[in-house]
Amino acid sequence: MTDTIPDLSLHRSCPYGPPDQAAELRERGPVARVRLFDGSTPWLVTGHAEARALLSDPRVSSDRSAPGFPMPVPTPGPRPSNLSATLIANDPPVHSRLRRMVIPSFTVRKVAALKPKIEAIVTERLDAMLAAGSPADLMADFALPVPSRVICELLGVPYEDHEFFEEQSRRRLDADGQAIQNLIKYLHDLVGRKIDNPGDGLLDDLIAEQLREGALDHTELATMGMVMLIAGHDTTANMITLGTLALLSTPDQLAKVRADEAAIPGAVEELLRYLTIAGTLSRIATDDIELGGRTIKAGEGVLVASAVANREQSDDLDVDHPLRQHLAFGFGIHQCLGQNLARAELEIAFTQLFRRIPTLRPAVPLDEVPRRDNALLSGVTALPVSW
């Protein structure tokens, strides 16, 4: 093992492939130092077992205000203090209190009750895309509108505002520091309107059950809504497009999915592992931790390279043998709250897409697919398709 600390790059030449640097990072062992854009040298965890162990260790924190908390990409301006009110930037007991407020809306039973609505949304979007004719942009015409509609239905957010929050989400991923503030202001105003004119949705439930009782204040509720709004549409949209692209690029695997719709839940699980579009998870140690033969000192930053760790299980896409216990949704107390909803959306989207458009194919070569490539989220900005 070399003592040279490499500059971390999570660039992916292939939009659905692992980071180009993955092999080099693996060779350094499951836990090793890397250098970030700001010169800091946190630990990077690439081993699958080590990643699961770290993410479930109570001696690591998600507090983004902690000195030395590692950020894989630049964040213009000061880090938003609003994030202290969210699930993603809190530790127990605050995290536990916030999670209990919203988890009933994301249970298996609640998601099962939403499936007819998801089916109707998917059908409507495919009807519109087919009516417009070939070619089409799968991202703009299908992959983005579906989860945007679903999360708006769940939260009680007016879908007519979707272009605004989708644009702010894109700007956030492009390191625009103002985007988060714009989204929080939007949700703050929306909560204010809902206080005076209640409707149906998770935000309305939180107003009635938490805000009016004093368990949440107005800003905390707006910030929680912002995080759920972003997480509820952007990641799923990119999974639909990249999952479609990966299957279209592996005809043997696509044939299995088209031959038997019962294989689609397993295919979704395998695509989640194989793609792992959220490439890294950030933590900071609150005590000394022995991991992978290294000692992570209290106060040192740690990045979990989920996209690399998941490929340790296999570099091949195999929908017949989905490898579970992956890290696509994280692990431990911060494991993604919306994973049941995401799985349902992906299963329904892929089922209808490949059933109704059996001749679906990319309309441009792979290297011409415009993509977003950063350490926060891998994805495409458009996916031209024809049939």
UniProtKB/TrEMBL annotation:
Record-linked Pfam families: p450 (PF00067)
For this protein, what is any one GO molecular function term?
monooxygenase activity
**Presence of keyword Oxidoreductase:** yes
Q: What is this protein called?
A: Pentalenic acid synthase
Bias regions of kind Pro residues — which residues? 69-79
Q: Give the similarity note.
A: Belongs to the cytochrome P450 family.
Region annotation (Disordered) maps to: 1-21, 56-80
Q: Which UniProt keywords apply?
A: Heme, Iron, Metal-binding, Monooxygenase, Oxidoreductase
Could you tell me which species this protein originates from?
Kutzneria buriramensis
